[in-house]
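ok so dumb question maybe but i'm new to this and my supervisor (M.) told me to 'just get the structure for Iron-binding protein IscA' and walked off. so i did the thing. is this what she meant?? sequence i used:
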Amino acid sequence: MAVTLTDAAANRVQSFLANRGKGIGLRVGIKTTGCSGLAYVLEFVDELNDDDETFAAKGVTLIVDAKSLVYIDGTELDYTKEGLNEGFKFNNPNQADECGCGESFTV
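this is what came out, is it supposed to look like this??
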């Protein structure tokens, strides 16, 4: 499988990369934290690591390290605006539950 993104997310990432002026793509990963144990991490990438997998989608390169891919394989990254709130949303088919505040999840 892979990690993908919607048109809205692709447009937002391309805009961020253009404003930043450099970068080969967006790293999508996880870190251990929060009530439920795992949280998503997004960061711009200038150089690939040895254990990185890359996924090209809609003009954007998504980079995922091997450890994170186990938890987020099949995830679709979306960008949403709801009222005054806007941000990236993870549609992860592996996610079993999330904490009450929505900041962390479990598989």
